[in-house]
């Protein structure tokens, strides 16, 4: 059961959609329900020892899991670059924007910023296709972004925040370093953001 | 409606609105009005929070347009001269962004994330359960190794075969040439050199001598010296029971040397 669960988790993680406990129970555990937690624990150990991946429960109420890497990212020039790479670039831009603006940003501000990078919600993008869908649906489903409507706004406006996956896969410190690297400055240049980033373990 | 106005840190409009609401509330008598008042409070508190947020980032103002410019630069924007009167731009950079711009940026951002690499079977998967991935990958490596080795000898074999075939074909061709010639003119022996020398290629000449030597070795032709002590070649007549004859033929070995100079 353990190896089945490991495979199941690895395949489910391909699209970066968080894995529900109910799915795990249904597809893999089956009759072994009683030993569910034991199986999950062992699967987690295997994932860690064999693949360097951590099984993290990002929602303890609804029991939703994601896989996160525990190893530093290999750097190199010839690593595979695909659509996932490009999407990660877009995501990093949005996440860092949100953080630098005080951990939340209005959708209007986000889209205005993206427009400067030639990304328009209404137009089909050469690389990302339907960008609005990518940002508002895919990134949200993957738990990278948390987008909620602002009450009593008409037409409705949205608030962008980091999703739980973003919190696990990166950190304020990392995103600040990203911004600093792009702008050729030291992270401490932005004092309050720097303090906030350093405050997190 | 005056959201932006109220948000501006310089305005007290929000405070004024709150104060007015307070005043109005004292005159409220029915539920509907109270509900409106509550709605107003929610709006006001939202605005208040936003204002507070703006204050916070004011301290270390984040210049997002500058960030955008730096991002574009990193992505390899080719800034071209843009006319001043380009009204579409509204202060945005002109220029051409290469198609791999986002991939380039994405590759740079990867180091800031601990994303689990997307797992895929190297050879795709069957309906039934494939073995645990790690083993699969190792097996895959071994399999390719073996296949490569197998490919090598197969290739060599093919080459050798074609070599042999080519040689045999050549030999046969020359023999047929000889025989045809002799059939037409049985009394005229062929000068060895006339046969083998290719006036245009020394290498070809050497090859021809090589092929002729096979014919001689196998006894299909023989070389004699004519009156001028120049070698001539003629096919061997076929007698009954020629196999014995062939083995009885005196076998001589001769070395013919032909230098490049001589060939010329």
UniProtKB/TrEMBL annotation, chain A:
**GO CC terms on record?**
nucleus
Recorded coiled-coil stretches: none
Classification via Gene3D superfamilies: MAGE homology domain, winged helix WH1 motif (1.10.10.1200), MAGE homology domain, winged helix WH2 motif (1.10.10.1210)
MAGE domain location is 1-197
Q: Which InterPro entries match?
A: MAGE, MAGE_WH1, MAGE_WH2, MHD_dom
The record's PANTHER family line, in alphabetical order, gives: MELANOMA-ASSOCIATED ANTIGEN MAGE ANTIGEN, NSE3 HOMOLOG, SMC5-SMC6 COMPLEX COMPONENT
This chain belongs to the protein called NSE3 protein
From TrEMBL, chain B:
An example of a Gene Ontology cellular component annotation for this protein is: Smc5-Smc6 complex
Domain named Non-structural maintenance of chromosome element 4 C-terminal: residues = 189-264
Membrane spanning residue stretches:
none
Stretch forming the signal peptide: none
Annotated region described as Disordered, given as residue ranges: 130-163
Gene Ontology biological process terms in this record: DNA recombination; DNA repair
**Subcellular location, in the record's words?**
Chromosome, Telomere; Nucleus
Question: Which keywords belong to this entry?
Answer: Chromosome, DNA damage, DNA recombination, DNA repair, Nucleus, Telomere
Q: Which Pfam families match?
A: Nse4-Nse3_bdg, Nse4_C
Q: Which domain of life is it from?
A: Eukaryota
Q: Pinpoint the Nse4/EID protein Nse3/MAGE-binding domain residues.
A: 37-89
Instruction: List compositional bias (Basic and acidic residues) regions by residue number.
Output: 135-163
Q: What is its main location?
A: nucleus
Functionally, this protein is described as follows: Component of the SMC5-SMC6 complex, that promotes sister chromatid alignment after DNA damage and facilitates double-stranded DNA breaks (DSBs) repair via homologous recombination between sister chromatids.
Family, as annotated: Belongs to the NSE4 family.
Q: How does it assemble?
A: Component of the SMC5-SMC6 complex.
Protein name from the UniProt record: Non-structural maintenance of chromosomes element 4
Species in which this protein is naturally found: Crypturellus undulatus
């Amino acid at each position: 059961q353990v190896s089945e669960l490991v495979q199941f988790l690895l395949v489910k993680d391909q699209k970066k959609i968080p894995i529900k406990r109910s799915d795990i129970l249904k597809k893999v555990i089956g009759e072994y329900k009683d030993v569910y937690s034991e199986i999950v624990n062992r699967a987690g150990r295997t994932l860690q020892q064999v693949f360097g991946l951590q099984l993290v429960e990002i929602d303890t109420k609804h029991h939703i899991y994601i896989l996160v890497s525990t190893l530093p990212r290999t750097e190199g020039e010839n690593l595979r670059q695909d659509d996932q790479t490009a999407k990660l670039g877009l995501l990093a831009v949005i996440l860092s924007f949100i953080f630098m603006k005080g951990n939340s940003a209005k959708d209007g501000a986000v889209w205005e910023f993206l427009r400067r990078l030639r990304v328009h919600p209404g137009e089909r993008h050469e690389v990302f296709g339907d960008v609005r869908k990518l940002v508002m649906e895919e990134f949200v489903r993957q738990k990278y972004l948390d987008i909620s409507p602002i009450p009593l706004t008409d037409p409705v406006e949205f608030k962008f925040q980091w999703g739980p996956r973003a919190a696990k896969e990166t950190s304020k410190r990392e995103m600040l370093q990203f911004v600093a690297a792009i702008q050729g400055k030291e992270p401490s240049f932005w004092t309050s953001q720097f303090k906030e980033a350093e405050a997190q373990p | 409606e005056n959201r932006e106005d109220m948000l501006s840190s310089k305005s007290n409009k929000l405070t004024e609105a709150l104060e007015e609401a307070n005043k109005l509330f004292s005159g409220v008598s029915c539920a509907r009005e109270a509900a409106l008042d509550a709605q107003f409070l929610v709006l006001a508190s939202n605005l208040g929070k936003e204002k507070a947020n703006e204050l916070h980032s004011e301290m270390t103002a984040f210049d997002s347009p500058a960030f955008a410019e730096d991002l574009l630069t990193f992505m390899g924007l080719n800034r071209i001269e843009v006319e001043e009167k380009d009204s579409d731009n509204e202060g945005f950079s002109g220029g051409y962004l290469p198609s791999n711009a986002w991939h380039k940026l994405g590759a740079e951002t990867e180091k800031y994330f601990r994303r689990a690499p997307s797992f895929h079977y190297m050879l795709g998967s069957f309906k039934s359960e494939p073995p645990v991935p790690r083993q699969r990958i190792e097996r895959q490596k071994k399999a390719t190794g073996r296949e490569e080795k197998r490919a090598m000898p197969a290739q060599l074999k093919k080459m050798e075969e074609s070599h042999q075939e080519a040689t045999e074909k050549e030999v046969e061709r020359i023999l047929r040439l000889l025989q045809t010639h002799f059939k037409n003119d049985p009394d005229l022996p062929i000068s060895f050199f006339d046969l083998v020398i290719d006036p245009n290629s020394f290498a070809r000449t050497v090859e021809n001598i090589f092929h002729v030597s096979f014919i001689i070795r196998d006894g299909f032709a023989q070389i004699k010296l004519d009156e001028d002590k120049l070698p001539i070649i003629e096919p061997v007549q076929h007698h009954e029971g020629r196999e014995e004859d062939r083995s009885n033929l005196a076998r001589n070995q001769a070395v013919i040397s032909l230098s490049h100079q001589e060939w010329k």
